Amino acid sequence: MRLLTVSRRPRGIALMLTLVVLLLLTIFITEFFFETTLETRAIQNFNSSFLAQSVAKSMFKAMLVALTLNETEFFRNLTDLYAVAGIQIDSWANPPAELIAFPEGIIPDFDNAIFYTPYVRSIDHLYNLNRLQSKSESRRADGPEDRPLFNQFVNLMLQVPVPLNPEGSTQEGDSEDVEYLPLEKITPLYAAIFDWIDGKDEDRIYQNQAGVRGFESGTYVGFEVDPDLQMKNRKIDRLTEIRLIEGVVDSGIPFDTWQKYFTVYPVGKDPGVGEAVSRLNVNIASRDDIIEFLRRFDQDSAYYSELNIPDEEKNFQLQPWVFNAEAIADVLVTEDLEGQRINYKDLNAVDAAVRGLNLERGRASDFFIVFGEWYEIRLIAEVQEIQAEIRAIVRIGRDPNSGAGKPDEVEIVDFIMR
Length: 418
Hints:
By secondary structure, this protein is of the alpha+beta class. 35% of the residues lie in helices and 14% in strands. It is built from 11 helices and 11 strands. Strand 10 (386-398) and strand 11 (405-417) form a beta hairpin. The longest helix is centred in the first third of the chain and has 59 residues, at 11-69. The termini are far apart.
């Protein structure tokens, strides 16, 4: 009789297989929960982003409506809103660039959103760099149309602080850490910008009788870090483009300073009719804004002295306003008996206000406007730590007498949302 024998597998192999299966199940389950968590978080972030963008767009639309209806009331209300955040505003021509968060739930309809102080700036007074060349590109370097623009550029730049430390600040209180560019460093900047937009090439390098020269394509191809960089020879589309222009970065002037004083949009008086000319909105400007703006038009300037420009070629009708800049600012920036800043309804009222300074009547329109048309807007809304930001340039056509905005002439010139 044969006995059957039963073979026995080692118990260790079964245990090992069981552990491997359990390990794989653990990995699969962990990966599943991890992916589920990521997808859930992604959906939450998408929803928060969508809500933040919706809130920002709602803010933007509300700002446009209010700004169109009544500019004076809009900026008064905006000043009161900033006061809630503990910020005092003296100028809407140069408001604080930093946006501060309001407490959550400050607006009842958006109790889960955080709003930041809205940045709304009147920019009609900024120096338009694209004005250096006329629409027909016929403006001659160092000609009678070019010299006043060059003179204003120099007068403006002589007032601009440049930080000695590249990481430094040009804010108030840092006067020991800044310098001011001399004339010989300012004039090449103007010439370089002129050549960048003049539509000409090597045969039209900017040059004036003081020996100031610009830069055409040969300079950029031969000496720039990027050998493929070419001259644009067209108008500047966005201000960030100036960083490509010869000498701008090396000047040490921070980009936020360029943003404070310059633009590439056709701001100013009578946009679309002839050539726009920068004017300062006297109703929202501070005392310092007025002084700084008037000094752009100085006819006894360092630049005119450098060129030996004869008096008959200067516009001395502007000079009394430059000479009396501080007194004019003191008169125009005043409050009524209730502590409200006086608002000028038309330029005749501005002329009347400065009449005691023995200035020629009717000249206020050379420098000022009483309501703006061009604005820079920046808004931030936040939902569950996700931010949406809007940056826009807006033009609002207004009635020349009442200043009321025309809804059919509201133009969003530039718009970025991120």
